[in-house]
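User: Reviewer 2 asked us to show a designed sequence for the structure in our supplementary figure. I'm pasting the structure tokens here. Could you produce the per-position amino acids so we can include them in the response letter?
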């Protein structure tokens, strides 16, 4: 939450890399997140470099040995004419190409709950080639796409759509190239991140809230209350 990425060895923090050199990031506040960074998805690219999806800065590269942070794709750069608002998670297609979720093009990290209230379908999945900076929107019209995980077939990937409690599968290669399928529907909670198991035969899905018909959470209760959702959005919960 303080805009740092940490290197942990044997349970101890041995290095802390801030996402920016901006002042005032030592004490975390709601305001400081906007300029200090909010790293979310992180994966190792090679021995020295990690790639990070930062919700307020964009796609970054971190070198823990050199203690450097490089902006690969700034959040201010338009993609298909629309700027990112919430880079969330990603995975590698290959060492030079990632697919990442832009959870919303209307609401950023500090206002993400408004995306759940609105269900505006303004999220998207984007392919990004690191060496050239080339981007391509693969899927749009999504309600808060979140965790991303490559499938073992190396022709498709899974991603969570948090606001609808679904997991989708998108084929970027092979005979089904370009096809989007529902992988799992009506999950018992709102899915956040997704990662493959060490065996490669199953997936771990983190859920940030439950879904239960007998004991619904607040988002379920608000589902049919359009006016209440509108009022909550106006007061910016």
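Assistant: Here is a per-position design you can include in the supplement:
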């Amino acid at each position: 939450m303080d805009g740092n990425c940490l290197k942990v060895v044997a349970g101890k923090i041995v290095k802390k890399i801030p996402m920016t050199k901006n002042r005032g990031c030592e004490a975390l506040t709601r305001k400081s997140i906007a300029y200090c960074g909010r790293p979310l998805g992180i994966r190792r690219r090679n021995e020295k470099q990690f790639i990070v999806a930062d919700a307020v800065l964009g796609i970054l590269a971190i070198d823990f040995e050199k203690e450097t942070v490089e902006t690969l794709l700034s959040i201010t750069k338009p993609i298909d004419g629309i700027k990112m608002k919430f880079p969330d998670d990603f995975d590698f297609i290959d060492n030079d190409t990632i697919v990442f979720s832009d959870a919303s093009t209307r609401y950023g990290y500090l206002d993400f709950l408004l995306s759940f209230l609105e269900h505006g379908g303004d999220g998207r999945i984007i392919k990004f080639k690191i060496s050239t900076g080339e981007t391509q929107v693969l899927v749009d019209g999504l309600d808060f796409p979140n965790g991303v995980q490559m499938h073992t077939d190396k022709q498709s990937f899974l991603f969570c759509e948090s606001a609808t409690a679904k997991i989708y599968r998108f084929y970027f290669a092979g005979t089904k190239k370009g096809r989007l399928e529902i992988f799992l529907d009506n999950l018992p909670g709102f899915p956040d991140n997704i990662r493959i198991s060490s065996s490669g035969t199953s997936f771990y899905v983190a859920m940030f809230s439950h879904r239960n018909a007998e004991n619904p959470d607040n988002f379920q209760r608000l589902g049919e209350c359009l006016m209440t959702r509108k009022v909550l959005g106006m007061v910016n919960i």
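For the response letter, you might also mention the following. The helical segments are 33-36, 112-118, 218-221, 226-234. The two ends are 19 Å apart (CA to CA).
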